[in-house]
Recover the amino acids of this structure.
């Protein structure tokens, strides 16, 4: 008879703990997740961008889908690839802005 | 004679200590210390508390091993999203100079979009300090301990993001911190 209230005493804090942990799971934030504004990358000065910079790589990774979906963005990506190639050849990267 | 002098001096010291103790307890119970967050500490109290905090965090974080891949793009993306959800309300984001929390909290939370050098250029010590503070929080400051519900890897992701935060533009910040994924169309 004494076991029932005791199990409730254990179950309620355990449930509360589980819910509080779930609240901080990244999936919980996905319900009203903000979309990355990848169009803003068009207005950035690509001549000053370093493709080896982790910030740049992270942004490219985040916006990869948007770039492949939008033809104008694929132009940008192509030109970035060209810039990369030129840099690797030791030439000055093309200075252009979209 | 000398022994009497020492005993008398000891009595004098003990009496002074007792008086200080009684005075301190009386001050505490009188309730006259202004506890409101809108009344700043005096300079001595502020210095004592700040020194206590910094020395404690430096000692506690001393042996923490910093991961070698803190500059990976994956860490920036994961840490950025968490920073935006959990920290930006108090510690701000590019293009924002204040919030209700920065105006109302005391001590005011540091603006992490600005460069802070608390370790004289020792970047690793700063990483360890940030990791420890995010994980354990700071007593009576409004900074919570994020360890419950957040593993070490997730906290290191936030540390990685903090390293680059001061140099991000609002546009870069938005892209890095948005949890939504534009990769649905990617083949």
């Amino acid at each position: 008879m004494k076991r029932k209230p005791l199990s409730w005493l254990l179950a309620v804090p355990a449930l509360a703990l589980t819910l509080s942990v779930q609240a901080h799971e990244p999936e919980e934030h996905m319900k009203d997740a903000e979309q990355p504004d990848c169009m803003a990358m068009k207005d950035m000065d690509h001549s000053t961008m370093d493709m080896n910079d982790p910030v740049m790589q992270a942004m490219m990774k985040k916006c990869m889908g948007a770039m492949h979906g939008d033809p104008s963005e694929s132009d940008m990506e192509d030109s970035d690839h060209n810039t990369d190639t030129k840099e690797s050849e030791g030439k000055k990267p093309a200075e252009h802005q979209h | 004679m000398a022994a009497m002098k020492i005993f008398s001096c000891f009595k004098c010291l003990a009496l002074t200590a007792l008086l200080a103790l009684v005075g301190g307890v009386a001050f505490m119970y009188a309730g006259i210390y202004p506890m409101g967050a809108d009344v700043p500490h005096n300079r001595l109290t502020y210095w004592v508390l700040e020194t206590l905090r910094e020395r404690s965090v430096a000692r506690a974080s001393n042996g923490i091993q910093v991961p070698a891949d803190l500059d990976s793009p994956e860490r920036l993306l994961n840490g950025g999203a968490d920073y935006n959800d959990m920290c930006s309300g108090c510690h701000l984001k590019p293009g924002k100079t204040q919030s209700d929390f920065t105006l109302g909290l005391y001590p005011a939370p540091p603006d992490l979009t600005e460069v802070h050098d608390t370790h004289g250029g020792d970047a690793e010590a700063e990483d360890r300090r940030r990791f420890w503070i995010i994980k354990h929080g700071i007593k009576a400051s409004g900074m919570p301990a994020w360890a419950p519900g957040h593993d070490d890897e997730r906290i290191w992701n936030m540390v990685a993001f903090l390293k680059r935060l001061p140099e991000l533009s609002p546009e870069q910040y938005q892209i890095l911190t948005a949890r939504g994924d534009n990769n649905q169309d990617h083949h």
Confidence is low (pLDDT under 50) at residues 71-98 of chain A. The first helix of chain A runs from residue 3 to 22. Residues 1-31 of chain A form one domain.
